[in-house]
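step=encode ok
step=design start
structure_in=
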């Protein structure tokens, strides 16, 4: 296992170096080509501006993704908090229900009705086309 990990790390490292070399050579080739069209300074400024723009786009997209993830985390925490509150209320009401037979019967019937409705979930779509 250790030998396999070391072999894979070396091979992936070599592949990474080759991919980075390819990227650098492609950027250099584009700079040389644009240099023949617009001049060296303009070509390098365009390349730098493009890299800056792509970097800013990446930062903005990461910020948006982090914001959405944080919002989902807050909503999940709020939902769990609400569940905990409901469970606390239910446990608090349990002694009162246990003392009163009519309330106990009503709670049991309501719970069974809830489970029956939840189990039958309405999964019917539109009526079939004729």
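sequence_out=
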């Amino acid at each position: 296992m250790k030998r396999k990990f070391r072999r894979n790390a070396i091979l992936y490292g070599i592949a990474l170096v080759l991919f980075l070399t390819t990227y650098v050579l492609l950027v250099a080739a584009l700079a040389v080509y644009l240099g023949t069209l617009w001049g060296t300074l303009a070509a390098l400024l365009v390349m730098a501006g493009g890299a800056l723009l792509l970097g800013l786009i990446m930062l903005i997209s990461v910020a948006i993704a982090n914001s959405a993830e944080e919002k989902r985390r807050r909503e999940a925490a709020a939902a769990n908090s609400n569940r905990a509150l409901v469970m606390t209320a239910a446990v608090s009401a349990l002694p009162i229900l246990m003392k009163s037979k009519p309330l106990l019967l009503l709670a049991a019937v309501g719970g069974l009705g809830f489970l029956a409705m939840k189990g039958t979930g309405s999964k019917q779509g539109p009526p079939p086309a004729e």
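step=design ok
step=annotate ok -> The CA atoms of residues 11 and 76 lie 42 Å apart.
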